[in-house]
Design brief:
- The complex is a heterodimer of chains A (about 325) and B (about 425).
- Chain A is an all-alpha fold and about 325 residues long.
- Chain A has one domain: ABC transporter involved in vitamin B12 uptake, BtuC (Orthogonal Bundle).
- Chain A is built from 15 helices and no strands.
- Chain A is globular.
- Chain B has 2 domains: about 150 residues, Response regulator (Rossmann fold); about 210 residues, Rossmann fold, CATH 3.40.50.2300.
- Chain B starts with a helix and ends with a strand.
- In chain B, α7 packs across α8 and α9 packs parallel to α10.
- In chain B, about 40% of the residues lie in helices and about 15% in strands.
- The chains are: A mainly alpha (about 325), B alpha/beta (about 425).
- The interface between A and B is large, with 50 and 53 residues.
Chain lengths: ~325, ~425
Amino acid sequence: MNNVVEVFELFLFNIIVYNIPLLYGTTGEIMIEKSGSLNLGVEGTMAIGAVAGFLFGARFDSLLVACIVSFIAAGIVGLVFSFLTVTLQANQNVTGLTITTFGVAFYYFIGNAVSNGEKGWPKFSGTQLDAQSQALNIPGLSSIPFVGKALFSHGILVYVGVLIAILMWLYFNKTVPGLKMRSIGENPAAADSLGINVTAYKYIHIIVGSGIMGLGGLYMALNMGGTFEGSNCWINGYGWIAIALVIFANWSPAKALLGTLLFGFFNTLRVQNAALAYAFPNVLGWLTKIPSHFFSALPFIITLIVLILSSMTSKGRSGEPQAIGRSYYREDR
Amino acid sequence: MKKFISMLVTAALAVSSVFALAGCNGTQGSGDQGTTPAVTGGDETDETAAPAADFKVGAIYINSQNDTSGYTFAHHKGITAAMEQVGLDPAKDLYIVDNVPEDDEKVKQAIDQLAGNGCNIIFGISFGYINAMDEKAKEYPDIIFSHATGYLSNDTNFNNYFGRIYQARYLAGIAAGYKSLATGNNNIGFVSAWGTEYAETCSGINGFTLGALSVNPNAKVYVYEISTWGDQELERQAAETLIDTYGCGVIGQHCDSAQPQIVANEKGVFGCGYNSDMTTEAPDAHLTAPIWNWDAYYATAMKAAMTNPATFMTEVGIYYEGLNAGLVDIAPLSKNCEPQTAEAIALAKDLMTKGEWDVFSGVKLSFSGDAGSVTVAKTDAALKTNEGAEIVAAGGPSVEDSVITGSMNYYVEGVTQVN
């Protein structure tokens, strides 16, 4: 039995390390939804970004290549989504679901093909890609008691994810293009009348948003040791949780950061409840009496409550874009 | 026009994703070809070749036939290998419906499809197929139904099959026990899909623990139950918890993915996988893994069904074999094993193969001695649960098979479930 401080530190550490993909998925989806499109293809987009990014990253043995390819591959999925929903005005829900089905199937298709191929699935352990995605050791900060391990000893992609969330918040709220993008999400006709290129804005934000999701997928692949198993997908439902998290975060990238931590807290509690009860028998001993499935349901129960509360409060405070899910057809006015 | 193109593109995307799935879906085999391959000329002496020409095998899988590891993969490998052993061609004589969930309607549809294909024997590999197979066995009396892990059967054309995997787990436990002795860390972790809810997982944990105790009497096995058959993230986190919080130095597992072994590798401890040799995934951690050689059963079943389907239930019947039939075994010991491991495992395996001793009996084995001179001693000792209740009196016979497969719901001494 290790000491209680380590158990606590590990708990905090795991909240971040296993749930950052949610932040990528959520911020990517927020960007897309804020520009007026509802993309239910998060799971599939992440899967494609993950498998493409990992395979190319392993081929060139570089994390940078992995990130770029993952961003581009997921961006291409975003391009397909934009072409279908913006240019051809297909139903966004159906297209998003199709992308999820397609993306996950693509993951298995490529994964099986590579595994059964001549060279087999690429090795990850011990490669440069592995080394580059390992936790950083920041002198001074990483060794701060209690929070040093949880906050300052992660792989680079964790910090990139946080940075993306912060930059996105600034972009939405402090820049003119961000304002224009939000106006499209609220009322594309009005934005159009002001001379904003609705189509171009939608395309760019869907592609960038999808690319961000792809990075989240890549993170999951690297975090799982990069092994492909025929009957498990790396993404494992995180894409769907991200969609719920968007609502929870009230379409704000800053709140997405908080939401990720809260969802992550319950996700981690599900796994670590026994360890916590073991380390703090008097205070937390009751944790083991709660079935683990309750912890997995908890984030969704909270989302439900948030939905109810937000629909009860005034419309003005909701961050939901008014034109979300509706195709914009210029001649429709 | 725009609408039309958009529908076209959506449809194309949908169709292409169906095809991507179809890579691992649907029925394999040449389908309803009217020309059954002619039996080769008169100089044919192989006895099995004559019925082979029109004998067809059907299989229902829970996951994809294209899996590269895991449960379905092991069965698919077993069926194709067995077919080659008995002179059938898997490319031609094997019909598969895969990705079939444990849903009675879906299983019945799959059975109807395979019956329509003219299959003579149908294997269902997942526990939840049990009711559908039971029902359909009455509807198709000429087809033999064979169900893995179940408990139902009839007198004419429906059996079940499973193996004494706990014997293989005992052997893996020996490897883990030696490692714990060598490292001086008595804590052994075990990531398990389920705990005492299923006799399969429960007997596996007990077998593994007794194996470890036969080498290291002070060993403690900490079980982390993830409450699902497969979830990579959970398996990984469970292994991390066992290593970081409970200080375990060897990680055993009964779950789908290799994540517990990969974590052991990352953290510089050791482990025993399951289902396949996980040494490739965890080169510096993996010791050995209990594995299934399903072809041992499949070949027996196919031979019996090809010879005379009417006597299948008397020839094969309810099939429950272990190390003796080669149905279960362990993967080759890796370089990470302690030097005494191979000898001790050979001794234990020999006793079980000959039927002189079994895991859940009132006699315990203890191994001692250095490499080259490992000896085994048998001592009478009661088999007790971790709560102290006596299961088998000292010197008593093994627990009944029906208990091991169906109702074992207690842990033996030395096991602690952490959650």
